[in-house]
């Protein structure tokens, strides 16, 4: 692999006007001047700086003579030296600007270097907005009277972990990857294709790419594949770089989907192991967490699908543009046909990913519904058991009531005759017992009957008072409802 490491000191450089610092010169700069100004305010949403203290950029250059050459780990001085040499650019150049692991959303370059890069490549101000927030893809085409064409395009995608960084603390825990910065980063790509409209394109066209926050594995795969002579294959069609990187992004997306399939299968199999209410609660929470995460991740795939549709449309534009030239070579036409097939396949692949995502989301919802159904079934079983126990208690009480009815008359008689008003004494000379009643036996009834009457009166009074309060409350509610305009309109509709 051909590599060059930029470590030489930077020569004296004449300062140039900083990109975005001058007054708006074009319509795009006029429309997006505030956006550019905000991007270079160097203040992120939480009040911290959004630019890195140092810049680290890998530059990959491709030319027909030397193939692919890598300039690795260029710092601020090396980047500025390389930009000064761009008076006669190579056929194709790619700038890989890596993400900062501790802060994936921070711009991994210094403010001055970013201004120099944007000024050198005349980057469209509309692209700046997607560096700091999620944005839909876009493009701009410039056609000159001389036949020169300049085609700019940009898009973004949310890339999640490929699974290597995922660790489960235990089988009952669900890590929320949709919220943690450590597991996602905003991938951004900008490309610029310029053609002078003459010849077959071997000496008069150039393509530039800026790739922000590209995963390390994808970047290394690109270097391994296209370093040397094989890099010249990319010169036949400027969309080949997008096709390679997007294919690797889809493979990474497939790997990330495996994060959801494992927990889904595991919690679905636990349906027969649920015993306690805590088991049902844990299973419900797991499915709810999965449903929330999958719903969040599905938004990423919608953005990815929009980017692929955008690339497919730009491939069609390149096909029409190249076919309009009479001097187009056969191998370039073959490369264009290959690009059409690749992006058509990528479109189908991202739809398949969306189908799997919808399937996992639906299964998570079914798991939640199943948990609630099982909880309701368990509650019904408990209610049946409680009803059976209550029925058994009622039977026992019925037996007690029957026994009470049998013995109650005898108990009443024995209690009455056991009072001091009635006495029984043995007869004289062993004769029959003598029963005698006191002349004051009526005192028992004189005391018990009034007390019973007083208790009944007090009880009836409290019942009457409670029923009166309930009637007053009901009357007040009816009068309030009669005065309520909404209630009146509802009553009219019902009538």
From TrEMBL:
Top-level taxon of origin: Eukaryota
GO cellular component: membrane
Keywords attached to this entry: Membrane, Transmembrane, Transmembrane helix
Region (Disordered): 1-24
Residues that span the membrane, as ranges: 402-422, 442-462
Biased amino acid composition, Low complexity: 8-17
Pfam name, any one: CorA
GO terms of molecular function: metal ion transmembrane transporter activity
UniProt xrefs under InterPro entries: MgTranspt_CorA/ZnTranspt_ZntB
Protein name as catalogued: Uncharacterized protein
Organism: Pseudomassariella vexata
């Amino acid at each position: 692999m051909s590599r060059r490491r930029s470590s030489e000191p930077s020569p004296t450089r004449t300062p140039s006007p900083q990109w975005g610092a001058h007054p708006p010169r074009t319509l795009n700069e006029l429309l997006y001047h505030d956006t550019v100004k905000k991007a270079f305010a160097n203040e992120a949403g939480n009040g911290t700086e959004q630019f890195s203290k140092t810049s680290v950029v890998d530059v990959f250059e491709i030319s027909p003579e030397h193939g692919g050459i890598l300039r690795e780990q260029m710092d601020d001085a090396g980047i500025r030296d390389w930009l000064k040499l761009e008076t006669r650019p190579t056929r194709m150049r790619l700038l890989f600007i890596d993400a900062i692991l501790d802060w994936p959303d921070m711009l991994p370059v210094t403010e001055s270097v970013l201004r120099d890069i944007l000024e050198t490549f005349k980057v469209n101000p509309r692209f700046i907005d997607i560096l700091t927030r999620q944005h839909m893809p876009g493009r701009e085409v410039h056609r000159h009277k001389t036949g020169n064409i300049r085609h700019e395009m940009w898009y973004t995608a949310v890339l999640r972990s490929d699974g290597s960084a995922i660790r489960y603390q235990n089988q009952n825990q669900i890590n929320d990857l949709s919220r943690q910065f450590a597991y996602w980063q905003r991938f951004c790509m900008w490309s610029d294709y310029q053609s002078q409209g003459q010849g077959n394109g071997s000496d008069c066209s150039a393509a530039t790419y800026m790739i922000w926050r590209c995963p390390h594995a994808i970047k290394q795969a690109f270097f391994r594949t296209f370093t040397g002579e094989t890099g010249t294959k990319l010169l036949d069609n400027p969309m080949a770089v997008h096709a390679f990187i997007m294919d690797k992004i889809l493979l990474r997306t497939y790997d990330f989907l495996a994060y959801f399939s494992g927990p889904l299968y595991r919690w679905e199999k636990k349906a027969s192991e649920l015993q306690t209410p805590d088991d049902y609660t844990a299973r419900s929470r797991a499915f709810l967490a999965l449903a929330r995460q999958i719903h969040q991740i599905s938004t990423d795939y919608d953005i990815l699908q929009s980017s692929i549709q955008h690339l497919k449309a730009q491939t069609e534009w390149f096909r029409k543009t190249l076919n309009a030239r009479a001097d187009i070579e056969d191998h370039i036409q073959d490369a264009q046909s290959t690009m059409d097939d690749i992006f058509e396949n990528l479109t189908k692949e991202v739809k398949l990913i969306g189908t799997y995502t919808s399937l996992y989301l639906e299964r998570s919802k079914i798991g939640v519904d199943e948990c609630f159904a099982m909880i309701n079934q368990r509650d019904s079983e408990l209610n049946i058991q409680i009803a059976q126990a209550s029925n058994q208690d009622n039977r026992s009480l019925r037996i007690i009531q029957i026994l009470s009815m049998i013995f109650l008359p005898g108990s009443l008689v024995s209690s009455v005759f056991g009072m001091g008003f009635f006495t029984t004494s043995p007869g004289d000379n062993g004769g029959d017992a003598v029963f005698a009643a006191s002349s004051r036996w009526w005192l028992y009834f004189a005391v018990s009957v009034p007390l019973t009457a007083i208790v009944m009166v007090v009880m009836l009074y409290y019942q009457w008072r409670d029923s009166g309060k309930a009637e007053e409350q009901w009357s007040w509610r009816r009068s309030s409802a009669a005065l309520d305009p909404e209630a009146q309109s509802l009553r009219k509709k019902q009538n």
